[in-house]
Amino acid sequence: YIDGFCGPDGKVAVYDKQRDSIQSIRKSPKSIFFELDRHSVEINGIKLSILEDQLFSDTDSRLAPYLIKLRDEPYTDEILTIERQTHMSVFLIDIFWRNPKTDYAAMDLFQRSKMTFFDEETGNRFEDSEKERRYKEDVVNRKLERFRIHVESMLQITAARIPGFTYSKLWEFKQSPFILSDFPLIFSKTPQTHTDLGKLDHFFPISSNRLYACNELIGLNFELGDSLIINALQIDQATSFVVAASRECLERSISFYKSA
């Protein structure tokens, strides 16, 4: 994803929001937005990366071709096929639930859920508050349940789509006006449910010069100058880092954000 925001040198300019400074050295995209062992689990003292290696990597490999086509193919009226739109909805869910910013929401869903257990001898399900408490306190279970919430959200969004209905728009500019923050999704209001993620109006840049938007878009026009609004909203939502193809783009966006 971040590759679409690199400059000609294959690197990005980086703004450290917590320090309120643009780093002097341009960085490789692989070194940004990365948290060591975020999806690793430890079982019997052995650290395993099963979530990243098998589950998330499989999702990435399935979604990447659709993102790359929307980012790199020549812009035409036929670029937004129904299949690509569906996969972009899944991509949005993937970004949302893998982001540290949604950790609290995922944990809240997990803690409020009511669990039942299966009795192999009787074949009946039963409740056990103590067993449920121990299950929910286990770090491995928390990470696995976070992935389950992730998948459930994807399934609900794809099931809610109406076959043959066009949901999306794509804008392209000759310049590279868009930045990318560590939380790039812009919603019309805060999502409250899984289906809100797919039904609420939302925008997110898919490259430094293309913006993808979804839902109530009839008559909506997006001008080059409006990119600063998208950028400012991204900076406002960012926790740690914001990147852009050029330092000038970052400086312009930060200045607009601070003056808004």
Brief rundown of the structure:
By secondary structure, the chain is of the alpha+beta class.
What does this structure look like?
With 260 residues, the chain is an alpha+beta fold. The chain contains eight helices and twelve strands. Helix 1 (50-72) crosses helix 2 (82-98), helix 3 (103-112) crosses helix 5 (139-160) and helix 7 crosses helix 8. The chain is globular, with a radius of gyration of 20 Å. The two termini are 28 Å apart.
Count of runs of 4 or more consecutive helical residues: 8
Mean residue pLDDT? 83
Per DSSP, what share of the residues sits in E-state strands of 2 or more residues?
15-25%
Helical content, roughly?
Answer: 40-55%
Oligomer: single chain
Uncertain segments are none
What are the key terms here?
alpha+beta; four-stranded antiparallel sheet; 8 helices
What is the element layout, followed by pairings?
Layout: E1 13-16, E2 21-22, E3 41-43, E4 46-48, H1 50-72, H2 82-98, H3 103-112, E5 117-118, E6 125-126, H4 129-137, H5 139-160, E7 168-172, E8 180-181, E9 186-187, H6 196-199, E10 202-207, E11 210-214, H7 227-237, E12 241-244, H8 247-259
Antiparallel strand pairs: 1-2, 1-12, 3-4, 5-6, 7-11, 8-12, 9-10, 10-11
Helix pairs in contact: 1-2, 2-5, 3-5, 7-8
